[in-house]
Structures are given as C-alpha cells and as structure tokens.
Description:
The chain has 154 residues and is α+β, with helices and mostly antiparallel strands. It has a single domain, classed as Hotdog Thioesterase (Thiol Ester Dehydrase, Chain A). It has helices at 4-12, 15-20, 51-67, 134-142; strands spanning 23-28, 31-37, 71-82, 91-101, 105-113, 119-133. A six-stranded antiparallel beta sheet has the order 1-2-4-5-6-3. Strand 1 (23-28) and strand 2 (31-37) form a beta hairpin.
Amino acid sequence: MIDREKVQTITDRNPFARLLGLELLEVSEGYAKGRIPMRKEFGNIYGGMHGGCVYALADTIAGIAAATYGNYVTTIDGKMNYLLPVKDTAYVYCEARTVRQGGTIGVYEARITDDGGRLLDTADFTYYRLDAGIECMELRKALTSAKPGPWCPI
C-alpha cells in the first residue's frame, strides 16, 4: 500500500491534475477522496461544469484509489451517470472506492458531490494494473541512468 503523502507528491507533479486544481483530501487502501474548484473555465453553455471535466475528476480520483495498492494503473474503461447539473457549489468532490481488485484488473466506483454532500453523478471505472510499482518508478526517475531490471521492468 502507498501512503497519502507519496500519492500527493505524485499528483502534484501531474500537469493535468494541477490544471484542474485537484486537491487530494483522503487516501487509504482502495479509497481516495479529492476535490476541484468550480471555475468559470470549466463551465458549459448551461452554466454548470462541463461533463468532460467531471469525468476527468472521477477518472483521476478513481485511478488514485486503484494506485493505492502500489502500482501505476491505466484506464481500460469508464462510464459516467450524469444525474444532476454540477453547479452552485464552490468545490466539486469525488470519492472513489474499490469494487473488486484482482491480480491485474480492478473495478472502482466513484461518486461526485457538491459542497452540501448532494449526489450529482456516479461513475464506474476499470483499470489495468501495470507491472512497475510506484516506488520502483520513483526510484528510476531519481536515477536517470538506471536501466530496466527485474526489480523495475519498465
């Protein structure tokens, strides 16, 4: 399992997460909670947050939940249920948790809420667990001359 500080450090280096203003609030094994601010740049023509932005939040937070088992992951599939418009809130929150984590494939559910805790959207994601562990990849970045080996296959 990977701790919140390690995940926050990795998230802080993610240019897309920085663009969204993603703030990681909680992390534990198979679980993550985060939020992004409601910005006019994220808006749609109806005055709410664009669905693509909501999807990006859900995919990012669910991916963090999947990565808490110690490996980087990549999205295989994702599905959003847009239940209510995302508007009239200072922040948009996402909580994601494990439905099932197998050897290489994991299924996660996410819930999008507003400042008052009102459920706005739900999502389901499937992730593929990469061979390289997060600790291994962080070490490789620090040692730029490192070559792949059995301890770090990428």
